Amino acid sequence: DKANYRHFMAKEIHEQPEVMGRTLARYVDVTAERIKLSQELPFHFSDIQRISITACGTASYAGSIAKYWFEQLARMSVELDVASEFRYREPLLRKGDLAIFISQSGETADTLAALRYAKTQQVHTLSVVNVPTSSIARESETVLQTFAGPEIGVASTKAFTGQLMVLAALAVAAGKARGELSESDEIRLVRELLEIPRLIAAALGSEPQIEKVAREIAKSRDVLYLGRGTSFPLALEGALKLKEISYIHAEGYAAGELKHGPIALIGENMPVVAIAPYDQVFHKTVSNMQEVAARGGNIILMTDAKGASEAIAHTLATIVLPDMAATFAPMVYAIPVQLLAYHAAVMIGTDVDQPRNLAKSVTVE
Ligand code: F6R
User: Fold this and answer.
1) What is the C-alpha to C-alpha distance for residues 240 and 227, in angstroms, rounded to an integer?
2) Dmax over Cα atoms in the chain, in whole Å?
3) H or E element in which residue 283 lies
4) Ligand 1 nearest-atom number relative to CA 108
């Protein structure tokens, strides 16, 4: 049931405040302002030397963002792979370490094969899945469910932010268990997580503006997405979302890589979506935007009020998102990224919920 929406994807994008609320209720003790997870895990984070994260597509970008969180909040080293590479690489896993698998469907063939390989290496396996009865959930030692509810649109939206919420809670739990975060750090981070549903609701308010920007995108043959830090995997996600539902060619790049090649593409005909919350690397991204502007490139900037006032580069449009602490910004910046792809596709007239050549669950490799 699409309720009053034109597509399942639109409905699912708009469900995200609710989804985040449900996921939070499971993993956060709201009154104590603590993460609930630590007691229920069959391992102690202090015994883990390295985490490996494996997933495909959008789920792999959630894993890529989580890598920044585990490093920053828990000082843990993380290796990340797409499942199709992991399974045939037969990577070296140390007995007793932790392997995390992320999958909406829980049936993705490559991710399942990667999980089965990990189990032969005697590591702890933990899956972040949306379907609790799925193969990946059944075969993992620990299952952390995302409470996104059924996702019908082929392009993953609410499952992605749900995965981010679970992984954020897990990274905070890891930081606390390893003594990298104090009790007051944990409380501060939990408060930031509890703000996310409200911030996502506010970000959804930018939809009318994004619809206008999407007209520019819909006219383009190629689009470049740039970001630094956790905004880099989100740039990859933005490019994936746009290409899969609008069939416009898009690429995501770490903003700092611009001058190592992609800058050659910049001209009037290729819009550049810059994802840049006002964080530690904001000014670095701005200098990349200036390089784009100086070559006649059209910039669509996604930032907050402070970022908008300090961006000092000409933009085609600036989408101003709510102010928030930077750590968990990807959960909020995912919204304009999804909406931009959605509205571009609607304008082009593609089959948004069932894009050509794609299946919701990739059960063959
Ligand atoms: C992108 C998308 C795919 C999936 C990927 C993994 O919008 O939906 O890239 O993220 O096929 O699927 P799951 O999460 O079911 O393992």
Assistant:
1) 14
2) 55
3) helix 282-294
4) 16
Q: Are 127 and 102 in contact (CB under 8 A)?
A: yes
> Which stretches within 51-141 are classed as H helix?
57-74, 83-89, 109-120, 135-139
CB 319 within 8 A of CB 209: yes
Q: Is 162 in the pocket of ligand 1 (CB under 6 A)?
A: no
Task: Measure the CA–CA gap between 9 and 2, rounded to whole angstroms.
Answer: 9
Per-residue confidence (pLDDT) for residue 363, from 0 to 100:
84
* Ligand 1 atom closest to residue 157's alpha carbon, by position in its atom list: 7
pLDDT in tens, 69-89: 999 999 999 999 999 999 999
CA 57–ligand 1 middle distance (angstroms): 5
Please name the residue ranges forming H helices in 122-279: 135-139, 158-177, 183-204, 207-218, 231-246
**Helices 329-348 + 207-218 axis angle, to 10:** 50
Would you call 120 helix, strand, or coil by DSSP?
A: helix
Mean pLDDT of the 173-189 span? 97
CB 222 within 8 Å of CB 270: yes
CB contact at 8 A, 50 and 97: yes
Distance CA 267, CA 252 (A): 17
CA dist 165 and 20 (Å) reads 7
242 Cβ below 6 A of ligand 1: no
Q: Phi and psi of 143, rounded to 5°?
A: -120, 125
Examine the predicted complex and report whether its ipTM is higher than 0.95: yes
Full-model pTM: 0.97
Interval 103-115 mean pLDDT: 97
Q: Are 310 and 180 in contact (CB under 8 A)?
A: no
Question: From residue 65, how far is each of 6, 14, 40, 81 by CA, in Å?
Answer: 30, 22, 24, 13
- Residue showing tokens 């070559």: 295
